[in-house]
Amino acid sequence: MTIQRMDNVAIVVDDLDAAVAFFTELGMELEGKAQIEGLYADHTVGLDGVRSDIAMMRTPDGHSKLELTKYHTPAVSDAEPRNPPPNTLGLHRVMFAVDDIDDTIARLRAHGAELLGEVAQYENIFRLCYLRGPAGIIVALAEQIG
After folding, report:
1. Phi, psi at residue 125, to the nearest 5°?
2. Closest CA to 111 of 96, 130, 133, 137
3. In angstroms, how far is the first alpha carbon of the chain from the final one?
4. Is 125 exposed, middle or buried (0-12, 13-18, 19+ CB in 10 A)?
């Protein structure tokens, strides 16, 4: 048996509305919001007393999704360090293909995004950058130029 597809990537955030605004500005669409709690949630994630709000975001093509999660209980655990560098073990970053990297960066800066380095060009194929987004997640952008 094989997998059917990758369904979504979850990101735990401290401000759900700000994270929804950030990813909406990026071009994702809000698919829906829900409150998650109960024994099934506790059993699924392996925590007791889970109560969270989620927002499911999808890319315009409908093939990729992000689940943004705000935990009310139990309290969130801060990652150490708070804003880990790109070479930290574990989930590295989420990358999005964009039409205009400069415009996208400008729009996301209004939502608190900060460049980790600078916009770099890979041969005559891509312009690329890493941004620090909601909850410290690294969001990579790629603009195909060739």
Report:
1. -115, -50
2. 133
3. 38
4. exposed
C-alpha to C-alpha distance for 76 and 45, rounded to whole angstroms = 13
* Backbone dihedral angles phi then psi of residue 73, each to the nearest 5 degrees: -145, 145
Q: What's the one-letter identity of residue 130?
A: Y
User: In which residue are the tokens 């990358």 written?
Assistant: 95
Question: Would you state the structure tokens that stand for residue 93, as one six-digit string?
Answer: 């970053």
Residue with tokens 């209004």: 110
**Strands 94-97, 138-144: pairing kind:** parallel
pLDDT in tens, 30-50: 999 999 999 989 998 899 999
pTM of the model: 0.89
DSSP state of 134: G
- Give the burial string for 75-88 (b: 16+ CB within 10 Å, else e): eeeeeeeeebeeee
